[in-house]
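Field reference: "sequence" (input) and "structure" (output). Example, RNA polymerase ECF-type sigma factor:
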Amino acid sequence: MGLKQLIQKCSKNDTKAQAELYQLFSGKLFSVCLKYCKNYAEAEDNLQDAFVTIFNKISQYKHKGSFEGWLKRITINTALQRYRNQGVFEIIDDTNIEDVEVTVEDDDVTLEFLLQIIQELPDRYRLVFNLYVLDGYSHKNIADMLDITIGTSKSNLARARKILKDKIEDYKTSLNTHTL
């Protein structure tokens, strides 16, 4: 069955088609959830919530653009809505915030470690960091999505980068002291 046919069956609440769609995309969308959530259990909850929304809105998909992109946007918005409801975004003074670049050129820093320290970021920093760095949204888009100012988006990104840079430096230092 083709994707267009699968989408049409899902829009008619065909549970077999919904199960097939879930099987096709749940892995990729779970990866998206992990980026935006604090832990595995929260990511699972967000994935389930996202699929409820997907199945409720699938008839609104107009077969223009990437279906996977449409699914990803719903999944990201589901995670973001949870944080908006929790009020994790505070308006902060964005003056005198130095932007820090985080570069990882070292084989000592594993992907697992990077994912772990990104997940450990405070919610407002993690969400902005993921939206900007990993998913390529502009500060204007992020501000609109999170109902914050562009300045708050920029300062949250700068603070996230600073925290990540410090954690990476601490990690490298601890590795070097253990090898001496």
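The mean pLDDT is 86.
The chain has two domains: 3-86, 111-179.
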